[in-house]
Amino acid sequence: MKYIRKFWSYLKRKNKIIVDGNIKDLDEMTKQEQKMIKIIIGFEKERSALVDKIERDLGIGQVQNITELTAYFEADQQQELNQIKDGLASVVKELGDQNEFNSKLIGQSLEIIDFNMNLLSSSHNQHAGYGSDADEMDVNRKSNLFDVKV
Q: I want to staple 105 with a disulfide (CB 3.0 to 4.6 A). Which of 18, 30, 52, 85 is the partner?
């Protein structure tokens, strides 16, 4: 649970970094995400091994979810497992919602960057005057500030 709380505060920080447009810190957070993913993969392996051990110890077949598993425990243990399950489900939903919000913010930031690049590119093509001694080649030539659209 402590890692879930850490990840939650991490997503909140990421939200602020995205809103502030701090690319350097966003890059650093992406590196931290890679480390967190490795931790999560480790936890998933531990969870899977624990469920396998419980299935063997109880002499039951493979269970698909925690609800199926709780049926093999006594009432007080079922209640405790259900509370843990509900707490985890709530946290996972909140994390998912926050992650979706951050993804939307990043998408909006990319749209703004694209708009600004297009604006810079088009303003670079405009000429200040149309005097009679303007070279026709200059007026018709289109030059781009950037060759690639982001």
A: 18
